[in-house]
Amino acid sequence: MKSTTHTQYKNALDAIGHLILTKPEAVTALLAEHGVEFSPPPKKTQLVNEVIEMLAENNSAFNEDLIELLDVHLEYKANEINQLINEDDEFLGGLVGGLAKGLVGAVGGLFGKKKKRGGGGAPRPNNNAAAQAAQAKADMQRQMEKMRQEQKRREEEARRRRQEEERRRRQLEEEDRRRRERQREEEQRLRAAQNKVQKAGMNPIAMIAIGLVALGTIGSFIMSGARKSAK
Protein backbone atom coordinates (compact mmCIF):
# COMPACT_ATOMS: atom_id res chain seq x y z
CA MET A 1 0.00 0.00 0.00
CA LYS A 2 1.36 3.41 -0.93
CA SER A 3 2.16 5.83 1.87
CA THR A 4 0.26 9.10 2.27
CA THR A 5 3.46 11.04 1.59
CA HIS A 6 4.06 9.21 -1.68
CA THR A 7 0.44 9.74 -2.76
CA GLN A 8 0.62 13.45 -1.99
CA TYR A 9 3.89 13.72 -3.88
CA LYS A 10 2.46 11.96 -6.93
CA ASN A 11 -0.74 14.04 -6.80
CA ALA A 12 1.37 17.18 -6.64
CA LEU A 13 3.34 16.15 -9.72
CA ASP A 14 0.10 15.33 -11.55
CA ALA A 15 -1.48 18.68 -10.64
CA ILE A 16 1.53 20.88 -11.41
CA GLY A 17 2.42 18.82 -14.49
CA HIS A 18 -1.12 19.13 -15.86
CA LEU A 19 -1.03 22.88 -15.22
CA ILE A 20 2.22 23.18 -17.20
CA LEU A 21 0.90 20.86 -19.92
CA THR A 22 -2.36 22.74 -20.49
CA LYS A 23 -1.63 26.29 -19.28
CA PRO A 24 2.04 26.95 -20.04
CA GLU A 25 1.40 30.67 -20.57
CA ALA A 26 0.06 31.02 -17.02
CA VAL A 27 3.09 29.23 -15.57
CA THR A 28 5.45 31.35 -17.68
CA ALA A 29 3.78 34.52 -16.36
CA LEU A 30 4.03 33.22 -12.78
CA LEU A 31 7.74 32.57 -13.12
CA ALA A 32 8.26 35.99 -14.72
CA GLU A 33 6.67 37.62 -11.68
CA HIS A 34 9.36 35.99 -9.59
CA GLY A 35 12.30 36.93 -11.77
CA VAL A 36 12.53 33.93 -14.09
CA GLU A 37 12.13 35.11 -17.67
CA PHE A 38 12.53 33.33 -20.99
CA SER A 39 13.45 34.42 -24.50
CA PRO A 40 12.20 32.86 -26.72
CA PRO A 41 9.10 31.36 -25.04
CA PRO A 42 10.09 28.30 -22.98
CA LYS A 43 9.51 24.65 -23.70
CA LYS A 44 7.51 22.69 -21.17
CA THR A 45 10.69 20.94 -20.01
CA GLN A 46 12.13 24.33 -19.06
CA LEU A 47 9.00 25.22 -17.14
CA VAL A 48 9.21 21.97 -15.19
CA ASN A 49 12.85 22.63 -14.31
CA GLU A 50 12.23 26.19 -13.16
CA VAL A 51 9.13 25.40 -11.12
CA ILE A 52 10.94 22.62 -9.26
CA GLU A 53 13.95 24.88 -8.69
CA MET A 54 11.71 27.57 -7.22
CA LEU A 55 10.04 25.03 -4.95
CA ALA A 56 13.46 23.76 -3.89
CA GLU A 57 14.39 27.30 -2.85
CA ASN A 58 11.39 27.30 -0.51
CA ASN A 59 10.38 30.76 -1.74
CA SER A 60 7.23 31.46 0.25
CA ALA A 61 6.01 34.19 -2.12
CA PHE A 62 6.33 31.90 -5.13
CA ASN A 63 4.72 29.03 -3.26
CA GLU A 64 1.70 31.15 -2.33
CA ASP A 65 1.23 32.35 -5.91
CA LEU A 66 1.54 28.80 -7.24
CA ILE A 67 -1.02 27.62 -4.68
CA GLU A 68 -3.44 30.32 -5.83
CA LEU A 69 -2.97 29.33 -9.47
CA LEU A 70 -3.43 25.63 -8.69
CA ASP A 71 -6.56 26.29 -6.65
CA VAL A 72 -8.27 27.75 -9.71
CA HIS A 73 -6.89 25.06 -12.02
CA LEU A 74 -8.02 22.16 -9.84
CA GLU A 75 -11.48 23.64 -9.39
CA TYR A 76 -12.12 23.06 -13.09
CA LYS A 77 -9.62 20.36 -14.09
CA ALA A 78 -9.46 17.78 -11.27
CA ASN A 79 -11.81 15.40 -13.13
CA GLU A 80 -9.81 15.75 -16.32
CA ILE A 81 -6.60 14.90 -14.45
CA ASN A 82 -8.37 11.85 -13.02
CA GLN A 83 -9.19 10.65 -16.52
CA LEU A 84 -5.73 11.29 -17.91
CA ILE A 85 -3.69 9.54 -15.22
CA ASN A 86 -5.80 6.43 -15.89
CA GLU A 87 -4.82 4.56 -12.74
CA ASP A 88 -6.56 2.68 -9.95
CA ASP A 89 -5.81 5.47 -7.47
CA GLU A 90 -8.10 8.39 -8.16
CA PHE A 91 -6.40 11.76 -8.14
CA LEU A 92 -7.49 13.91 -5.20
CA GLY A 93 -10.17 11.42 -4.27
CA GLY A 94 -12.56 13.06 -1.79
CA LEU A 95 -10.22 15.89 -0.79
CA VAL A 96 -11.55 19.43 -0.59
CA GLY A 97 -10.36 22.83 0.55
CA GLY A 98 -6.72 23.83 0.96
CA LEU A 99 -5.77 21.10 -1.45
CA ALA A 100 -3.27 23.05 -3.56
CA LYS A 101 -1.43 24.18 -0.43
CA GLY A 102 -1.00 20.59 0.66
CA LEU A 103 0.23 19.52 -2.76
CA VAL A 104 2.78 22.31 -3.05
CA GLY A 105 3.93 21.52 0.47
CA ALA A 106 4.33 17.84 -0.46
CA VAL A 107 6.90 18.75 -3.13
CA GLY A 108 8.55 21.65 -1.33
CA GLY A 109 8.92 19.61 1.85
CA LEU A 110 11.17 17.13 0.07
CA PHE A 111 14.02 19.58 -0.14
CA GLY A 112 14.23 20.65 3.47
CA LYS A 113 15.85 23.87 4.58
CA LYS A 114 19.09 25.07 3.12
CA LYS A 115 22.04 24.70 5.42
CA LYS A 116 23.94 27.84 6.38
CA ARG A 117 27.66 28.28 6.68
CA GLY A 118 29.10 28.40 10.18
CA GLY A 119 29.05 31.96 11.50
CA GLY A 120 26.46 33.13 8.97
CA GLY A 121 26.95 33.98 5.33
CA ALA A 122 25.26 32.68 2.21
CA PRO A 123 23.25 29.44 2.32
CA ARG A 124 25.20 26.31 1.51
CA PRO A 125 23.74 23.97 -1.13
CA ASN A 126 22.07 20.83 0.15
CA ASN A 127 23.40 18.00 -2.04
CA ASN A 128 20.57 15.70 -1.03
CA ALA A 129 18.00 18.36 -1.95
CA ALA A 130 19.65 18.79 -5.36
CA ALA A 131 19.32 15.06 -6.01
CA GLN A 132 15.69 15.13 -4.90
CA ALA A 133 15.00 18.10 -7.18
CA ALA A 134 16.49 16.22 -10.13
CA GLN A 135 14.31 13.22 -9.29
CA ALA A 136 11.22 15.40 -8.99
CA LYS A 137 11.90 16.90 -12.42
CA ALA A 138 12.27 13.45 -13.97
CA ASP A 139 9.13 12.18 -12.23
CA MET A 140 7.07 15.16 -13.37
CA GLN A 141 8.26 14.79 -16.95
CA ARG A 142 7.27 11.13 -16.85
CA GLN A 143 3.80 11.92 -15.47
CA MET A 144 3.26 14.63 -18.08
CA GLU A 145 4.20 12.24 -20.87
CA LYS A 146 1.70 9.69 -19.56
CA MET A 147 -1.03 12.33 -19.51
CA ARG A 148 -0.05 13.49 -22.99
CA GLN A 149 -0.25 9.95 -24.37
CA GLU A 150 -3.59 9.29 -22.66
CA GLN A 151 -5.01 12.53 -24.06
CA LYS A 152 -3.83 11.52 -27.54
CA ARG A 153 -5.47 8.09 -27.15
CA ARG A 154 -8.75 9.65 -26.05
CA GLU A 155 -8.75 12.10 -28.94
CA GLU A 156 -8.15 9.24 -31.39
CA GLU A 157 -11.04 7.26 -29.87
CA ALA A 158 -13.31 10.30 -30.12
CA ARG A 159 -12.30 10.76 -33.76
CA ARG A 160 -13.14 7.12 -34.55
CA ARG A 161 -16.51 7.45 -32.80
CA ARG A 162 -17.34 10.55 -34.83
CA GLN A 163 -16.41 8.76 -38.05
CA GLU A 164 -18.56 5.75 -37.14
CA GLU A 165 -21.51 7.98 -36.21
CA GLU A 166 -21.16 9.86 -39.50
CA ARG A 167 -20.99 6.58 -41.46
CA ARG A 168 -24.10 5.30 -39.68
CA ARG A 169 -25.92 8.59 -40.31
CA ARG A 170 -25.15 8.45 -44.03
CA GLN A 171 -26.26 4.81 -44.15
CA LEU A 172 -29.61 5.63 -42.51
CA GLU A 173 -30.14 8.55 -44.86
CA GLU A 174 -29.44 6.34 -47.87
CA GLU A 175 -31.83 3.65 -46.61
CA ASP A 176 -34.50 6.29 -46.04
CA ARG A 177 -33.96 7.70 -49.53
CA ARG A 178 -34.34 4.26 -51.10
CA ARG A 179 -37.46 3.56 -49.04
CA ARG A 180 -39.07 6.81 -50.19
CA GLU A 181 -38.06 6.07 -53.78
CA ARG A 182 -39.71 2.63 -53.59
CA GLN A 183 -42.81 4.25 -52.13
CA ARG A 184 -42.99 6.76 -55.00
CA GLU A 185 -42.59 3.97 -57.54
CA GLU A 186 -45.44 1.98 -55.99
CA GLU A 187 -47.65 5.06 -55.87
CA GLN A 188 -46.98 5.62 -59.56
CA ARG A 189 -47.89 1.99 -60.29
CA LEU A 190 -51.10 2.39 -58.31
CA ARG A 191 -52.09 5.48 -60.25
CA ALA A 192 -51.20 3.74 -63.51
CA ALA A 193 -53.33 0.74 -62.55
CA GLN A 194 -56.24 2.98 -61.60
CA ASN A 195 -56.00 4.85 -64.88
CA LYS A 196 -55.94 1.54 -66.75
CA VAL A 197 -59.05 0.38 -64.91
CA GLN A 198 -60.86 3.60 -65.67
CA LYS A 199 -59.98 3.41 -69.34
CA ALA A 200 -61.03 -0.25 -69.50
CA GLY A 201 -64.33 0.58 -67.89
CA MET A 202 -64.01 -1.98 -65.04
CA ASN A 203 -66.69 -2.07 -62.38
CA PRO A 204 -66.08 -0.34 -59.01
CA ILE A 205 -65.51 -3.60 -57.11
CA ALA A 206 -62.63 -4.56 -59.41
CA MET A 207 -61.13 -1.10 -59.04
CA ILE A 208 -61.25 -1.35 -55.23
CA ALA A 209 -59.63 -4.81 -55.30
CA ILE A 210 -56.76 -3.59 -57.48
CA GLY A 211 -56.28 -0.56 -55.21
CA LEU A 212 -56.13 -2.70 -52.08
CA VAL A 213 -53.54 -4.99 -53.64
CA ALA A 214 -51.42 -2.02 -54.64
CA LEU A 215 -51.72 -0.44 -51.19
CA GLY A 216 -50.73 -3.71 -49.56
CA THR A 217 -47.63 -3.86 -51.74
CA ILE A 218 -46.67 -0.32 -50.73
CA GLY A 219 -47.21 -1.15 -47.05
CA SER A 220 -45.01 -4.22 -47.26
CA PHE A 221 -42.18 -2.18 -48.78
CA ILE A 222 -42.48 0.49 -46.09
CA MET A 223 -42.50 -2.03 -43.23
CA SER A 224 -39.56 -3.89 -44.76
CA GLY A 225 -37.57 -0.66 -44.94
CA ALA A 226 -38.47 0.27 -41.36
CA ARG A 227 -37.27 -3.10 -40.07
CA LYS A 228 -33.96 -2.73 -41.91
CA SER A 229 -33.42 0.77 -40.47
CA ALA A 230 -34.13 -0.46 -36.94
CA LYS A 231 -31.40 -3.10 -37.14
**Subunit arrangement of the protein:** single chain
Please, how many domains? 2
Coarse morphology: rod-shaped
Give the terminus-to-terminus CA distance: 49 Å
- Number of DSSP strands? 2
Element order: H for helix, E for strand: HHHHHEEHH
Percent range for β-strand residues: under 5%
Largest sheet: 2 strands, antiparallel
The mean pLDDT is 76
Helix proportion: over 70%
Number of helices: 7
Poorly predicted tracts of residues:
93-97, 115-124
The side-by-side strand order for the widest beta sheet comes to 1-2
Radius of gyration: 35 Å
Backbone structural class = mainly alpha
Structure description:
The protein is mostly helical. The protein folds into two domains: 160 residues, no CATH class; 64 residues. The protein is 77% helix and 2% strand. Strands 1-2 form a two-stranded antiparallel sheet. A hairpin with a 6-residue loop joins strand 1 and strand 2. Helix 3 packs across helix 6. It is rod-shaped and about 110 Å long. About 6% of the residues have low confidence.
